[in-house]
Amino acid sequence: MTVLESMTELARAAKKASRELAALSSDAKNVALNAMADAIEANVPALQEANAADLVTGKELGLSEAMLDRLQLTEPRILAMARGLREVAALPDPVGRKLDEKRRPNGLRIEKISSPIGVVVIIYESRPNVTADAASLCFKSGNAVILRGGKEAIRSNVLIARLMTDAARNAVAGFPESAIQVVPTADREAIPALLSLTHLVDLCMPRGGEGLIRAVTACSKVPVIKHYKGVCHVFVDREADLAMAEAIVVNAKCQRPSTCNAMETLLVDRSIAPGFLPQVAKALSTYKVKIHADEASIGILQAAGQTNLKPVQPTDYETEYNDYEMNLRVVDGVEEAITHIGDHGSAHSDAIVTRNEKTARRFLSAIDSAAVYWNASTRFTDGGEFGMGAEIGISTDKVGARGPMGLDELTTYRWLVYGQGQVRQ
Amino acid sequence: MTVLESMTELARAAKKASRELAALSSDAKNVALNAMADAIEANVPALQEANAADLVTGKELGLSEAMLDRLQLTEPRILAMARGLREVAALPDPVGRKLDEKRRPNGLRIEKISSPIGVVVIIYESRPNVTADAASLCFKSGNAVILRGGKEAIRSNVLIARLMTDAARNAVAGFPESAIQVVPTADREAIPALLSLTHLVDLCMPRGGEGLIRAVTACSKVPVIKHYKGVCHVFVDREADLAMAEAIVVNAKCQRPSTCNAMETLLVDRSIAPGFLPQVAKALSTYKVKIHADEASIGILQAAGQTNLKPVQPTDYETEYNDYEMNLRVVDGVEEAITHIGDHGSAHSDAIVTRNEKTARRFLSAIDSAAVYWNASTRFTDGGEFGMGAEIGISTDKVGARGPMGLDELTTYRWLVYGQGQVRQ
């Protein structure tokens, strides 16, 4: 069997399962999710054994310590996976919501109803806990999922999926086993093969570094929801509360710099730069933040006795540092800030700090990003923080879900039309 | 300049225009649309002159009479274009609608607001009126549009777009001229070049035959919203009102067979087939409908004296005839109908005719199509019939808009977050 043939078989089974999922009640789905959680909790030793074999392979593959740490399934991590499954069970069913209703003059009643997307492929890197998270969110939203983790995690991923499907099958009559499948091969050709099956696969969500996401997008013939990177900005307006601005900037950069919603570039209005830049630079120096500064900022900060500055390079403005490192630029007001963000940003999360409502409204209306903030840190772009209950990823796309994606964002809709024999004139 | 360079220039201008469009008020957009309508009405002779040159080229290219007819801009057609522009002006602005609002325990207020998608590429075949329709809907929804019509219509399309942009620029300060652009070259390489610009183009909507749509989808690196074809079904259940079923079947097939929401396959429950098939075949014979029938249907219809039947071939079930031609199959109840539609349908529009609510509910929940009907003709899947006011196309995709696409479906959303200095813990 070629890779294309085996991927077609996998996807065909997923398609069939996706139809069977449509017939499961919310209660049945929740019983299945809780049974999955029980099975994960009951199998800590087996999961650690499979994971230990993955860790050996990971060392042979020369993974870094950080990567090996991400790969490892400690007991607390396993129990957290189970807890996550129970949390998903407790969330409302996203399928069957009435999104709109119309009554037409000819008597037709038209309902717009949320529905599962169908077959979703998730491609991710090393953390095996993503297997349980992603599978549970897809299952709850009525989608069949095909999971493709890193090759170093394949034993852990396969076992997690098997425990989940076995438990669900025993707990719920009619649970389709192919609702949750792991691509069983590490063959690189599996991804383009799977993503060529436009008649069977409805959506692909890659999660990982920009390289992975670009490679997936380049080969996919099915729709992809993704964000390439998070180059987020904070603009401090001339009418900002400077203590608030300092707190927001430090939080946006330093609270967790490895995340996609951390700030990469700070834009400061020229008229307040002489006072604000030394203040914020001092606050950032507590975290040893490396600053790539434009000429105007360097002038001001050197005059204030700060010397540890690198001149910013043009490509820096499009770089996601994922670290205690950032760009700093002085701009002439909100319009220049808007232009900078449009030219260099990644349409993820951008903030303005100002007391002036008119300036804030201009920024909120002109910045075309998934999340736009007025007087708050960019770090809130997150399914949990937005009250979605769970998150499967963040999208900077404009077709389909945008921003944090929870259960609702894993659905599409159908139009149901109720007639009494109407025909078109 | 290479094709890629010139397409990049076009797309960059569109991106810039899309930002300027965000600043236009609803009133300004409507003034512009009405000015565009005036300009079209005032330039009937010039439009007919440009169109006459296109018609000469079309004849040289050997277009069929039907194609030449579609290409022709008669005076009524030109006036209808202008009327369409005024109708779009009269519709509510789809941008800025509050789709959701959340208040978080930390005091953040989060609004989900409808927003323009950005830069939309529309690829279509010969009818030049699509230029005005598509441009007006994209403009009203705040999107910059790049139009690529058939090469035989290029003079008509360029003039329509120029009249619209000139009129809008004169009527409205701040109207960005590059909001509406026509690809100025007939070079085939223009399409893949344009659709490789993931950082500038947000969406592509191809409109036309399956060949065009498949070619666009295969080369595009940007999201595509489309429907390949419309293979729509009517299932007549054993508990159907047979007079209603006959009327719906005849309407779904014959009212306008060239449309994508016309019925291609009729499925009839075995228990009513002996009575219903001769009845419906007689009604269809009024329109000289050619029937590809399965063995069971042929048996019944021949016994009833009907002879003009072709045995159905397996690929027929996936064929969009676009003509007075259809498939007929006898099935064992609603479950077999659901399986048939899932296996062979195009997820466009499918109907059940039945008096039994439980059977109808099963069909409505199991058929994963953009529009699912109970006791009505499939021909209602249409923006106007759904009360959307205007339609730019129909989508059978599940990511982004699904079913008829009006102004609302040409928007995405942004999350606007209002704080008082909140930072993440």
Please, could you describe this protein's structure?
The first copy, chain A, has helices spanning 3-21, 26-42, 44-60, 65-71, 75-90, 129-140, 154-171, 190-194, 210-219, 242-254, 273-285, 295-303, 333-344, 357-366; strands at residues 98-103, 109-116, 119-124, 144-148, 180-182, 203-207, 232-236, 263-269, 290-293, 309-311, 325-331, 349-353, 371-376, 393-395, 403-405, 411-422. With 425 residues, the first copy, chain A, is α/β, with parallel strands linked by helices. Chain A has two domains: 3-226 and 401-418, Aldehyde Dehydrogenase, Chain A, domain 1 (3-Layer(aba) Sandwich), CATH 3.40.605.10; 232-385, Aldehyde Dehydrogenase, Chain A, domain 2, CATH 3.40.309.10. At the A-B interface, strand 2, helix 10, helix 14, strand 13 and strand 16 of A face strand 2, helix 10, helix 14, strand 13 and strand 16 of B.
Give a brief description.
The structure is a homodimer of 425-residue chains. Chain A is α/β, with parallel strands linked by helices and 425 residues long.
Which terms summarize this structure?
425 residues; 2 domains; Aldehyde Dehydrogenase, Chain A, domain 2; homodimer; globular; Aldehyde Dehydrogenase, Chain A, domain 1; four-stranded parallel β-sheet
